[in-house]
Amino acid sequence: MATPFVSNQDVTSTISPTGDMVAQLSTDSSVNHTTVVSNAALFISHELRTPLTSIQAVLHLLANPKYGALTQEGQRLLGIALSNSERLVRLANAIEKQPNSSLIVFSEETIKKLQLENDLHQALARQEMQLVYQPIISISTGHVIGFEGLLRWHHRNQGIIPPSVFITIAEQTGFIHELGLWVLQQGCEQLARWQQAFPIEDPLTMSLNLSAVQLQNPTLVCELQRIITETGIQPNTLKLEITESVLIEDYHRAVAVLAKLKAIGIQLYIDDFGTRYASLAQLQNLPIDGLKIDRVFVQKQLWALSEAIVHLASTLDLDVIAEGVELVSDLISLKQLGCTRVQGYFFSRPVDAEIADNLIATSYAIS
Predict the structure, then answer these.
(1) Which of 38, 46, 110, 204 is most buried per CB count within 10 Å?
(2) Is the confidence at residue 20, as pLDDT, over 50?
(3) Helix or strand (DSSP H, E) at 267
(4) CA torsion 197→198→203→208, rounded to 10°?
(5) Are 115 and 21 in contact (CB under 8 A)?
(6) Are 197 and 366 in contact (CB under 8 A)?
(7) Does the pLDDT value for residue 51 go beyond 80?
(8) Sequential DSSP letters for 249-311
């Protein structure tokens, strides 16, 4: 869980030499919202100036006749760009000189969110992101047959930031494309290492989550083809999980992209199935390979609904994986329902790659 903010303390912030807005806690009652806003203004002003310096330098180079003459249209567009960049510089100056009048509408919560957005965009470069892996188990053999890769953000000041927080921010800002590509690359590279180290008859698989926003990326399919080629994994050992919300938000776009992914050989699963009310007609027409029973069904022992999902999957010739198995009674019940693959804390929490190595070796009695 993320470190909670202390409600009884005031928050101030300063700009570090690297441009980060560093939150500080103070018990001084004299520190008020105006101070918070003033310091936030410095942060926002800096964030405006940093890219503008480079942009203006490039624009002035383009305006220099030594580097070639622009067409009349090019000169017109360059003039507009220079004018707009100068306006942004003036805006940065105004925010810095009159922070209270320009930013008083920002609440402290908004300022914290702005800082978190800024930190998120630097998290990859700072190596704060990590993939952890939860094993997927075959009920019939007890073997580890694959893993689900889960993204974790170890914020250098706040500790663990929940995915429910930073994934939402990444989607809202568009950073999800870069972040998601990193996850796909890291996950496939790790899978390739496992497949090479543990050459079992049925190769290990990797399940990775794909958001609705990622499906809108026109380069997604090409990037996945590149990653699969570079890592040398078999396409059908990569399983991409999407939620039912993808189908509800933009069904036709989703189907088109999923069909292209399916054509590559990638396996596709509906994650948290049964929680978002996608229609059965939509499900039948999707190019998918399996369903994942949401952990809520298992934890609340909704066995009748779980059995219905298992039967539905069987009718549509789809695989089923149940999440959230924590008790031996959960495992027994799911086995009785006909579920063949499971994951959950009963077997293992999400772990790093080194511990996952040991889980695989122990599973197959490899020394």
Answers:
(1) 204
(2) no
(3) strand 267-273
(4) -60
(5) yes
(6) no
(7) no
(8) H-HHHHHHHHHHHHHHT-EEEEEEETSS---HHHHHHS---EEEE-HHHHHTT-HHHHHHHHH
> Predicted confidence band at 12 (pLDDT cuts at 50, 70, 90)?
very low
**DSSP summary character for residue 351:** B
Ordered alpha helix ranges (H), 64-98: 72-97
* Alpha-carbon span 365 to 367, nearest angstrom: 6
Tell me the torsion sign for CA atoms 206, 209, 213, 216.
Answer: positive
Residue 148 confidence class, pLDDT cut points 50, 70, 90: very high
In the numeric block, which tokens belong to residue 72?
């009349």
Residues in the chain: 367
CA distances from 83 to 59, 64, 76, 79, 91 (A): 10, 16, 11, 6, 12
CA distances from 35 to 103, 132, 352 (A): 11, 40, 42
pLDDT at residue 271 greater than cutoff 80:
yes
Residues 22, 39 contacting (CB under 8 angstroms): no
Determine the residue type at 96: E
Give φ, ψ of 262 to 5 degrees: -65, -35
Label residue 191 left, alpha or beta by phi (over 0 means left) and psi (-120 to 50 means alpha): alpha
Number of neighbours of residue 205 by Cβ within 10 angstroms: 20
The torsion region of residue 201 among left (phi > 0), alpha (psi -120 to 50) and beta comes to: alpha
Q: What is the C-alpha separation between 188 and 190, in angstroms, rounded?
A: 5
Report how far apart, in Å, the C-alpha atoms of 237 and of each of 117, 146, 195, 203, 232 are. 34, 9, 10, 7, 11
C-alpha triplet 243, 164, 266: angle, nearest 5°: 35
Structure tokens that stand for 315 in this block: 């009718």
- The two tokens of residue 321 are 């994986």
